[in-house]
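Tokenised fold entry reproduced for absentees:

. . .
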Amino acid sequence: MPKQHCAEEPGMEAEAQELPLGCGGGGGSPAAGRSPEGEERREPPQASVSNGGDEDGGRELVELKVIWNKNKYDVKFCLDSTGAELKQKIHSLTGLPPAMQKVMFKGLLPEEKTLREIKVTNGAKIMVVGSTINDVLAVNTPKEAAQQEVKAEENKKEPLCRQKQHRKVLDKGKPDDVMPSVKGVQERLPTVPLSGMYNKSGGKVRLTFKLEQDQLWIGTKERTEKLPMGSIKNVVSEPIEGHEDYHMMAFQLGPTEASYYWVYWVPTQYVDAIKDTVLGKWQYF
């Protein structure tokens, strides 16, 4: 009689095989509500992570909010991973190559340190600034041409520090409160504003790099100009004769030299870091 019953319902065997692994029983009907033990043995679903987060694997994860180009990504990432590894993760999310990323968390993110070492906590905001390769190709050629023209013009002229317009500022001598310089060394930007320098009118000026906002603040006694770094067309500099451990530097705010904002007595160890921060490292590839 049981054999005759199975013959009348040939779909029973196929239906049982379609249950998830570990959900089958020894016998009886596989219909819903009849196998509570089978339901309890099902594997729990894996916890989902927004935008392709990593599996735990026993490692401690931290929840981050990555913000790039008005886009926000919720990411879980290993707390013991380095800044360089986080850049690779950002690349997978945005398509932005690591070399073209400026990643900020309380300043420029160090690539060699782990997120734990720089005290990243749950809910931390990671700001990313940078352009994709297509964006760079669209604007790089005209910018490179403009920079080459500027360099060609500079080569034709006498050294900047000998020109009359700069001589009147430089002849005042080195400011007493200018920051110390270290010749032959390249350093990251300090965590405090660069201060004690002169502007073109001979007034004191300070430079503050607001990396989280991607802005350069140029402060004088009268006011503070807040400039988006993307609006600065170029940065030029030249060592000061007789004081080669300091530079005179100009930020090009418009299409011509007339838009240069000059700053005098910039410590030489910060010159490359200023250019990299304002223009982006990709400008020098």
The CA atoms of residues 195 and 206 lie 4 Å apart.
